[in-house]
Design a protein that fits this description.
The protein is an alpha/beta fold. The protein contains six helices and seven strands, in the order H-H-E-H-E-H-E-E-H-E-H-E-E. Strands 3-2-1-4-5-7-6 form a seven-stranded mixed β-sheet, with helices on both faces. The longest helix is centred in the middle third of the chain and has 13 residues. It is globular and about 45 Å long.
Amino acid sequence: MSESEQSPLIFWEDHYAAMSPVSSGIPGKILVRFADPLTPGQALELGCGRGDDAVWLAKKGWEVTAVDLSSTALEYASANAERSGVLERITFARHDLTQRFPQGHYDLIVASFLESPLTFDRFTIFRTALDHVLPGGMLLITSHAKAPEWSKHADRPFQSAKEALAQLGTLPEGWEVLFCDDVKRIMKGPEGQEGQVSDSVVALRRKK
């Protein structure tokens, strides 16, 4: 069965089952860059994986709701949060974001690499997220813009930040673009090789 024919749930359960339950504990650099200056409040993470970003936000004082399609990922994330002493500040929940969006309103909604080799409409999810951001809050979207040459996904047609912003369509009244650009970084491969990658970053703020 090809990737395109797989059930998303089975795909992601298999993906995380093949990984170590213990993550690096290192939050995403883009998240730190944009969220560190903010006053902690209510945060929502879309696609939390093993929980490194959610744990970092909780350590900074945020009350976090972290969702993922994979129950295995959520089990790993919950255990990592407990080891870090912040489990009481994070609500982990399983959500298929293509079917329903988490309830509530948030000061920060984060989508870090909410991508898949399987086809799904992530921009509908992002447009829905806009309706759940509180006045003065931020929607932060980080995606792959360019993979290293040794990656098996190197030939995938990734989007630049400007392309991602355009695909969001016209922003609702009261929204402004804080940042829209591709950010380069060096990534190490499974055999220690290094390659340059680019992350597309779109940071949007809802005016007060």
